[in-house]
């Protein structure tokens, strides 16, 4: 019996080391993602310095909206949202490359999902994007419309981009060149909903006064 316990502990330790070394995105599933996008904190009050996550010329407006959100849901967490949105960024790109509509449906707003369906059904070539790393990630805008939160997130990522034809041959791009790619994605969630998932509303969302020089000023 003691030997079985020792083997079980050893197996758990090895799995933990493998998980950490291989990275999160390789083994994440939607259940894990939903748990992170829950953005809930522990029962203890945690004061977050949201300035660490914001890049905007109008920080005061974002901070005011953040306070309004906390009045409706005191467990809302910017740091957990940031972690979850980075995972969603990688998963959505991966599932789009695969044409995996069932997985995409649970992560996208209805209108954006329909757009993805149309693109996947009619594409003659496959645009592949492999995420090497997310270099930088900042919140550009937070809006609260009634009980729905909209958060626009800037991503600077390193990607390998190429295009394949139906025969699987690369027609443009390269599998050995790493490109820096900028995106602004907008997510939404009803603050009172029992559904924990945030949905992606738009890609390359245009903020009214989008801040410049993110690549040079961001860490």
UniProtKB/TrEMBL annotation:
SMART domains: Tim44 (SM00978). InterPro entries: NTF2-like_dom_sf, Tim44-like_dom, UCP031890_Tim44-rel. SUPFAM superfamilies: NTF2-like. Residues 62-205 form the Tim44-like domain. Pfam families: Tim44 (PF04280). It comes from the Bacteria. NCBIfam families: Tim44_TimA_adap. This is Tim44/TimA family putative adaptor protein.
């Amino acid at each position: 019996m003691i030997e079985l316990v020792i083997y079980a502990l050893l197996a758990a330790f090895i799995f933990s080391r493998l998980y950490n070394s291989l990275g999160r995105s390789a083994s994440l599933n939607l259940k894990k993602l939903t748990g992170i996008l829950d953005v809930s904190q522990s029962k203890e009050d945690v004061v977050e310095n949201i300035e660490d996550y914001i890049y905007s010329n109008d920080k005061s407006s974002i901070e005011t909206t953040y306070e309004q959100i906390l009045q409706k849901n005191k467990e809302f967490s910017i740091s957990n949202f940031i972690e979850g949105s980075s995972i969603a960024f990688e998963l959505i790109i991966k599932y789009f490359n695969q044409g995996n509509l069932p997985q995409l449906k649970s992560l996208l707003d209805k209108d954006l999902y329909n757009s993805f369906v149309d693109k996947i059904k009619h594409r003659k070539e496959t645009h592949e994007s492999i995420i090497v790393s997310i270099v930088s990630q900042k919140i550009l805008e937070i809006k609260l419309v009634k009980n729905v939160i909209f958060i626009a997130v800037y991503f600077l990522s390193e990607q390998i981009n190429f295009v394949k034809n139906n025969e699987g041959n690369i027609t443009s791009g390269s599998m050995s060149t790493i490109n820096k790619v900028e995106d602004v994605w907008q997510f939404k969630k009803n603050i009172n909903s029992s559904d924990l998932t945030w949905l992606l509303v738009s890609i390359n969302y245009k903020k009214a006064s989008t801040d410049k020089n993110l690549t040079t000023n961001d860490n």
